[in-house]
Write a structure and sequence with these properties.
This protein is of the alpha/beta class. It is built from four helices and seven strands, in the order H-E-H-E-H-E-E-H-E-E-E. A hairpin with a 6-residue loop joins strand 6 and strand 7. Helix 1 packs across helix 2. The longest helix has 14 residues. It is globular and about 40 Å long. The N and C termini lie far apart (29 Å).
């Protein structure tokens, strides 16, 4: 899968849509450089879990978290996001693909506590209607961000 990080305004919008607070544990499935979880830790003091199958991304995320002074708040997992445990997640962030979202959707709906926010940059979840959609204007193109909530 091609790696493309979410722009900073999108990261902010994602965290705000999920209404992240200090007590939250924010999971980023396909975390890339860790920017979403790192921002949640820096801005809100939230804990986080970065999951990526690419070892280079986990190294980069760990380095970025250390540079931001929040590494102790974040767990790093080099794992397949379709198999990683979702236990303890109180918010889930996604910037994957439509097909990956569809593959994850049943697990998210089954394994997360009712009402857990799931925020997806660009990609919907099939026929699961978003609770809210926002549009973040970018320098090159706009970015839709969708909020879903587990039933």
């Amino acid at each position: 899968m091609r790696y493309e990080p979410s722009p900073p305004p999108v990261v902010s919008a994602m965290l705000e849509l999920a209404a992240v607070k200090r007590h939250d544990v924010v999971f980023d499935l396909g975390c890339g450089d860790g920017r979403i979880v790192i921002e949640a830790a820096v801005r809100y003091g939230a804990r986080g879990v970065c999951v990526d199958i690419d070892p280079r991304r986990i190294v980069e995320a760990r380095t970025n978290a250390a540079q931001a002074g929040v590494a102790e708040l974040i767990e790093f997992r080099q794992e397949d996001l379709l198999r990683t445990s979702l236990a303890g997640a109180s918010a889930v962030m996604l910037f994957l693909s439509y097909d990956m979202n569809l593959a994850l959707m049943p697990r998210l709906q089954r394994e997360l506590a009712p009402g857990t926010p799931i925020v997806s940059h660009w990609h919907r979840m099939g026929d699961w209607p978003p609770e809210k959609t926002i549009y973040v204007k970018g320098p090159e193109r706009g970015n839709e961000v969708f909020l879903f909530r587990t039933p």
